[in-house]
Write a structure and sequence with these properties.
This protein is α/β, with parallel strands linked by helices. 23% of the residues lie in helices and 24% in strands. Strands 1, 2, 3, 4, 5, 6, 7, 8 and 11 form a nine-stranded mixed beta sheet that branches. Strands 18-15-13-21 form a four-stranded antiparallel beta sheet, with no helix packed on it. The two termini are 37 Å apart. It comes from Aureobasidium pullulans (Black yeast). GO terms for molecular function: glucan endo-1,3-alpha-glucosidase activity. This is Glycoside hydrolase. Keywords: Hydrolase, Signal.
Length: 651
């Protein structure tokens, strides 16, 4: 008779510990509207989030006392629709909260059915506030909350060293300088957390010009909405938080445009030189969220409707005055650039397709044949690419297959004219879906462009060769493409293609079914002198053993290796969980100095025959130390379960 309650409890525990995706919601943008933002308005937001497979809103509240009525409306709406909410206390906007205010607010809502729970505890986050980290020992003891703050100003290690966080949320969602976003900040958090939960940020864009708040800069967006979700697949964090749902002032909103919330651009607030969110919809970025969120959570997702999303700025970077905007910001200790060096003059597009198709971009009558920079494994999934601003005028992005139109997005014009003569560095986003009948007839489409002007419509036709109504499943288990910075680029490109993509050195950009590498040999690979052992050891071991040993980075000659004397390691040891791995690997010459200590050298001892079995560190292990060791050991028949796995779902 006791079995059923136990099973129910176990199922409940599994449910709350599952991966989850949240969206950061700025409550202050709706707190003082007239007429007030109603429970019905909250229901509209929540339905949009639910249709995107978002699990909860992180309610950003500032220390201004204006949030009470809206919290009541939000929780009422969430309870009605079966949605979840949790608090994100903003310690930066209006200063620090008093300890008692935080305690009272958590205790008031933690028992509410709509409050998000983790392991039976109320889930609570922050935006900054490390100066009040000492408050949280008392807050946690009096509320029983699970505390996962954003203290990015301290860095990952500095934040965890405060000793009070149960996990960490990172606000490092945008790249610095004329570069694309990488996973290096995420890896630093996972390493510092040593198995504690990590909440990874994902954002599509960043541009702000609010002199009233001393803000006027951009960070590169461009390919980031596609790239960042691929990085989520690689990092596999415990939680993902989208930045943001409705931060209009920083241009990273994905909610439907709501002119009632644009007060922050006014003369009594941000004093923006113009409203750069007006008629600049971003809701199209939600179109593929169900697919990528399902893929992140379970490693598989279905395609019931093919579709297209495209985004671009409406003027080239050199068309008008920059408005004083900088690329990067000195306020955060960054080197500043002209913004046009960061923001690329391109039309970006992603398509969710059941099979390969062609893309064409027309700008004011100038037709360009597009290409796919990223192609999903097996042909089913999200394709991504871009073309330059070759032309001026209305933008049309069209996906075709065998001469039939799959989806077409009709967008606003690219011109050389700017409102008030100032460049708008925000993105315009449009989307279109194919017909759902699969009959080849004209389908119903959704497009941001149709919401801006009644003269701009998006027409779509379902394909005849691959009906959009046919569900297709994809598996995202193995890395099948990746990249790295500088000298790591070639190594990461090779090794990530075959499933070995250590996150401390490389960024996986695509996942799918395992690609079999070239036959493995017993050739050892070492970083050449001067290279970082923690970054290069595992990569050189993998690539050299599979026939690719680039001389600028790796060598199979131990005399040319870091601290090499020409002999091979024949015995070694490591601390704790590394002991067995180091003993095995060092015995056969692979003894990375960041993880192991070589205790004896001599002539090379041939290891057991190599196979193409991949090895990964199990969840919670230090990637920099374990990646190369697990890859070497597992490929040679020794894969200790407490440290390594050949199953990427357990990595």
């Amino acid at each position: 008779m006791l079995l059923l309650p136990v099973l129910v409890a176990l199922m409940s525990a599994c449910h709350v510990q599952a991966k989850a995706v949240f969206a950061h919601y700025i409550v202050g943008n709706v707190a003082t509207l007239t007429p007030s933002y109603s429970a019905a308005d909250w229901q509209k937001d929540i339905r949009s989030a639910q249709s995107s497979h978002i699990d909860a809103f992180a309610l950003n509240i500032a220390n201004d006392g204006r949030y009470g009525a809206q919290l009541a409306n939000a929780f009422s709406a969430a309870n009605t629709l079966g949605f979840k909410l949790f608090f994100s206390f903003d310690y930066a906007a209006q200063g620090a909260f008093s300890q008692q205010v935080v305690i009272d607010l958590i205790n008031q809502y933690k028992g509410n059915g709509a409050y998000y729970q983790y392991n039976g505890k109320a889930f609570v986050s922050t935006f900054e506030g490390p100066g009040n980290s000492g408050d949280w020992t008392t807050i946690k003891s009096q509320t029983g909350c699970f505390f996962i703050p954003d203290w990015s100003s301290l860095g990952a290690q500095g934040a965890i060293n405060r000793g009070v966080a149960d996990g960490l949320f990172s606000w490092e969602a945008w790249p610095v300088g004329p570069n694309d976003m990488t996973t290096q900040p995420d890896v630093s958090y996972k390493n510092a957390l040593a198995g504690k939960p990590y909440m990874m940020p994902v954002s599509p864009w960043f541009y702000t010009n609010l002199p009233g708040y001393s803000k006027n800069w951009l960070w590169r967006g461009d390919d980031m909405w596609y790239d960042r979700w691929q990085q989520v697949m690689s990092i596999q964090p415990d939680f993902v938080e989208i930045l943001t749902w409705n931060d209009w002032g920083e241009s990273h909103y994905i909610a439907d445009l709501d002119t009632r919330q644009f007060g922050l651009f006014g003369a009594d607030a941000g004093r923006a030189p113009f409203n750069y969110a007006s008629n600049m919809p971003h809701d199209g970025w939600r179109l593929f969220l169900p697919y990528v969120i399902d893929m992140y959570k379970s490693g598989k997702a279905s395609i019931s409707t093919e579709g297209l999303v495209s985004w671009y700025r409406l003027t080239p970077g050199s068309a008008c005055s920059s408005g004083g905007t900088t690329g990067n910001t000195a306020s955060q200790g960054q080197q500043e650039y002209p913004p046009a060096q960061l923001a690329q003059d391109k039309v970006f597009y992603s398509a969710l397709l059941t099979s390969t198709a062609d893309v064409t971009v027309i700008i004011g009558g100038t037709t360009q044949t597009g290409t796919w920079k990223n192609v999903p494994s097996g042909g089913s999934g999200i394709y991504h690419g871009s073309v330059p601003f070759n032309g001026r005028g209305a933008v049309i992005v069209k996906i075709t297959r065998n001469g039939n139109t799959v989806a077409q997005m009709n967008g606003l014009s690219i011109t050389d004219t700017c409102a008030n003569g100032i460049e708008n560095w925000n993105a315009w986003v449009g989307s279109a879906t194919a017909g759902t009948s699969g009959s080849g007839g004209s389908g119903v489409s959704t497009s941001a462009s149709s919401k801006v002007s009644s003269t701009l419509k998006t027409s779509t036709t379902a394909p005849t060769s691959a009906p959009a109504s046919t569900p297709t499943s994809s598996s995202g288990s193995y890395c099948i493409a990746g990249t790295g910075n500088g000298n790591l680029a070639g190594l990461c490109s090779f090794s990530c293609n075959y499933g070995f993509c250590p996150t401390n050195a490389c960024t996986c950009t695509q996942r799918g079914r395992q690609v079999t590498p070239p036959a493995s040999s017993n050739t050892l690979g070492f970083p050449v002198a001067g290279q970082d052992v923690a970054l290069y050891s595992g990569l050189c071991e993998f690539t050299c053993s599979h026939g690719y040993c680039p001389s600028g980075a790796c060598t199979s000659d131990p005399s040319k290796a870091q601290n090499g004397d020409g002999s091979f390691c024949t015995a070694g040891t490591g601390s704790g969980n590394l002991a067995g791995l180091c003993s095995f690997s060092c015995n056969y010459g692979f003894c990375p100095s960041n993880a192991c200590t070589c205790t004896q050298k001599g002539s090379q001892i041939n290891p057991p025959a190599a196979s193409n079995t991949l090895g990964f560190p199990v969840a919670g292990q230090n990637v920099a130390q374990y990646s190369g060791l697990c890859e070497f050991a597992c490929s040679h028949g020794y894969c200790p379960s407490g440290a390594c796995t050949s199953d990427p779902s357990k990595a």
